[in-house]
Each structure stands twice: as structure tokens, then as C-alpha cells.
Write a structure and sequence with these properties.
By secondary structure, this protein is of the alpha+beta class. Helices cover about 20% and strands about 40% of the residues. It has two helices and eight strands. The longest helix has 14 residues. The protein is globular. It starts with a strand and ends with a strand.
Length: about 150
């Protein structure tokens, strides 16, 4: 697997999201139903101009991780039920651009973490994945993976 990895300045992206704490072993099985709830909210509220699916992760602890599973939206909104208005982190991040099957993302994340350590970049505890437009061919699926650094 060949990855483009670089340091980038990241700006806030507003999200409609669901927050949850899930077992690492349950990713992605528990995440897809959360995505369904976010998309139901977006459709039910007539939100237009939405963007890509974005999954944010905290630092794993005890085999579990805090997640925010969401969709980029153009404007802030009032929280409704379990759907919150959230955003991606702001600052410096290491980014890997991955083209391929989603099942390869754990390896992409591990490679990115190793790259950060090898290049002296301390991890700041937040990472996220931005999923590009759907492609039938897994080799054409783009996912941008970010790890916030100090």
C-alpha cells in the first residue's frame, strides 16, 4: 500500500453527527446504523448542500472509543434528539490519502500513526476520516485520513 502522507493545516467543517462510545471490535458494524440516523435527520430536515461522510475518533481506552459519526453540512443548526451540531478539529494534522477498499483503513491509520512518530509529531488525540464520493470499484474509493498533531 502506497500512501501520500503530509502535514496540513485543517479548518473546521460543520457536521450533523451522532456521538457514541463503541467497542473497537464493533467498527464498522455499529457505525453504519449511526450513519443511517444522521442521513434520516438530513433528509427529514431538508438540509441541502451537504458534503461527505466524516467519522471522528477519540483516543481508544479499554477497547472502546468515543466517536462522532456525521455528515458535513453547510451551516450550524440546533441539536435535535441525538443529532448534534459538531465540527472537525482545527490546527495541524498529518493526512494520508487512501485509494482502496475501506477494509484497509485500520492499516492506513496505523501507518499514519507510525509516520507521525517517525517524524517527531506528537498525536493530539483526535483523528477522522473523510469519505469521498461512492465508487463501485473499491480501488477508486478515496478516503482522507487525518490525525491531529501538536
Amino acid at each position: 500500500m502506497t500512501l501520500e502522507i503530509e502535514l496540513v493545516d485543517v479548518e473546521e467543517r460543520t457536521l450533523a453527527a451522532v456521538r457514541a462510545r463503541i467497542a473497537m471490535s464493533d467498527i464498522p458494524d455499529k457505525i453504519f446504523p449511526l450513519m443511517d440516523r444522521v442521513w434520516a435527520f438530513i433528509r427529514g430536515n431538508g438540509i441541502e448542500g451537504f458534503g461527505h461522510n466524516i467519522w471522528l475518533y477519540g483516543t481508544p481506552s479499554g477497547g472502546e472509543v468515543d466517536v462522532e459519526i456525521g455528515v458535513q453540512v453547510p451551516d450550524e443548526f440546533e441539536a435535535t434528539g441525538d443529532i448534534v451540531c459538531s465540527s472537525t478539529p482545527v490546527g495541524k494534522a498529518a493526512r494520508a490519502i487512501h485509494f482502496g477498499d475501506y477494509s484497509e483503513l485500520p492499516q492506513v491509520n496505523m501507518t499514519l500513526v507510525s509516520w507521525c512518530r517517525e517524524h517527531g509529531h506528537a498525536l493530539a488525540g483526535r483523528c477522522w476520516e473523510i469519505y469521498g464520493d461512492w465508487e463501485e470499484d473499491p480501488a477508486k474509493r478515496r478516503t482522507d485520513v487525518y490525525h491531529l498533531v501538536f
